[in-house]
Amino acid sequence: MKVYDSSTGTASSPEQERVKVGIAEYEVTTSDETLTTSGLGSCLGVALYDDAAGVAGLVHVMLPSADGVEDPNAAKYADTGIETLLLEMERAGADRDRIRAKVAGGSDMLDFSENGSGIGVRNMQQVEATLDDLGVPLVSDDVGGDHGRSLRLDGASGDLMVKSANKGSKTI
Amino acid sequence: MEVDIQSLETFNQLAYEGSQQATAMLAQMTGIQADVEVTKITLMDRDDIGEELAGQSFVGIGFDLEGALVGDTTLVFEEACTGPIVEALPGGAAGDELVESSVEEIGNIMMSGFIDGWADFLGATIEHSPPQYIEATGADVLPDADDPNEQVFVFKSHIEWPGEDLHFYIYMLPAYDRLTELMADSGTGDDAVPVDKLSMFNEMTKEGTATAAANVTQMTGIETDAEVTQISFAPVEDVPKQVDNKAYVGTAVEFSGTPSGYLMILFDEESAMNVAEALMPMEPDGEGFTDMHESAIEEMGNIMTSGFIDGWANVLETSVDHTPPRVVHDMGRAIIDPLAAQVGQHQEHAFIIESHMQTDDLEFGCEIHALPDDAELRQALDDLDVARKDETEPDVERIFE
User: Fold this and answer.
1) Of B134, B165, B186, which closes a domain?
2) Where are the transmembrane segments (chain A) (predicted)?
């Protein structure tokens, strides 16, 4: 995890950096970068942002809960991923009372589970429960269905653009 | 030789941390911040290593390793990387004649970073030779094979510079015997996988792929070749990175038996059109990828899946059933991600069985990816032992007689 702020200088900085968030990873920006993640199937992208502080973050979680997992990679699970992202954003200056959440992904494509809910649905249930526990309002979502998604979070506005392979794109 | 899952995880982690350390060294010297995308251990034919590099120009920095770990390691940079690296060095913008020595020097320091963690873990020293600078196309950037048909383990890391769309790779090819000894010694003996049988499983998969390829040819008249088969081991969250995120069309099934798991047959969009149209008795109604195309791909996927899975079942002398195929047309990573997540509910790492086939004269590429449950894969390999217990060494040719 790296925190991207205006002081981060690299050998070459394109005008507005796009920061890729891989599976089971999260990133925080304090300088209006665009955070992107791609290829969400049953995975969920959870975007958190605090407009006033100019802090935004995105986590790409794969499974609902880290319960019972020894030494988990926090960002792989919805519960620990959201908690970790929130703490990191607070460290970067965000105020929990102002943080809002948007969520996309959690498709039930290729869900072979015969009994009970599929992973996409359970991921979303866990995200809702964790956000509720943390007191973060979920302001919009684009979840479920049978198609994959890629996301682009505008760190400045909190706009979350959701693209799918065959169903066009929309901003939530 | 028995290697347990824990050792595979540990060694994969060492390669990942080594790659991170090498990348940190690069950042320290040049300010270039790169990210390690994926690190995996793969067992494959020596001759097929680096197949993914085909057609591109690279600069390689090669090293011989000696001591606790024996073998070759090569840092492979896309040719376009060398300019930014040299420019970013203090005093940068060196003349051409200095590029080679600058890149060598950086490679040398990165290599020290790469192997330090291994040496610490093994509690022994690993020496590396001076860097050797190589400019080459494709897999020629890697050392020549002594025995092209031998199956070997390769540790492969893919590293990306965000914002630059530049990539580099680290290939470590340890001597097979020494590596498997080290892995066997560092394990606890639980959940052990007989590594020699893994090679055999690869051979079985090759047979399955050949059958699937023959099915394609028989049904469409498209002659396929260049099949590559490999078995890799990686954290489940890295599994979706095995495929590109471009659009694919294909089928997925869940298979059950020993082993059980998931199998995908994926065509890129253009190949899917070509295959589907070769199967159709008449011109399709409508533009683009129609329902007729989709049902043709479903049929093709069904037959290829059966060909592939029956190959395993025959050798393992078990029955492996599969669900009817589900057709998918989506981003590659979104297709594989739900399957990786389903496997990931029970295990932290996964074996990934991959085969590729293609043709030269027509746009045709097909990838087969299987994700077996690792406990059942171990069981399948053990059963292979029981079924052939009169043989001390697995002998693929005899089994396929």
Assistant:
1) B186
2) none
